[in-house]
Write a structure and sequence with these properties.
The protein has 101 residues and is α+β, with helices and mostly antiparallel strands. It contains three helices and four strands; from the N terminus they run ββαβαβα. The strands form two sheets. Strands 1-2 form a two-stranded antiparallel sheet. Strands 3-4 form a two-stranded parallel sheet. Strand 3, helix 2 and strand 4 form a beta-alpha-beta unit. The protein is globular, with a radius of gyration of 15 Å.
């Protein structure tokens, strides 16, 4: 059975210490436009730090965005630097014994 690609419907970024959020959404854009706008932001802001849950996960994280960008736009996306997984950081600090509520 062929696996269907994950379709990106929205990407939201929020700056720490700031109430502003940037959302790229299919409500007003195509998937290609969402990914192009997001990766333009990444390219224009190389020093930003991206923190989230499972961001390095091949099935969920930034790799999905990169793979989909390449599939739809036919070129390599800008590199997303400074990616940190909160789940990995917490597990590294407290070990696998931690219980998630």
């Amino acid at each position: 059975m062929k696996k269907h690609p994950v379709k990106i419907s929205a990407i939201t970024l929020s700056e720490y210490g700031n109430d502003e959020a940037i959302t790229y959404s299919r409500a007003s854009k195509t998937e290609e436009e969402i990914l192009s706008a997001f990766f333009k932001y990444v390219e224009d802001n190389p020093d930003k730090i991206y923190v989230g849950w499972n961001l390095k996960n091949i099935s969920y994280g930034t790799q999905v965005l990169e793979r989909r960008y390449k599939e739809l736009l036919g070129k390599e996306p800008p590199i997303i630097k400074n990616v940190f997984d909160l789940d990995g950081i917490i597990e590294e600090r407290y070990g696998k014994k931690i219980h998630w509520a």
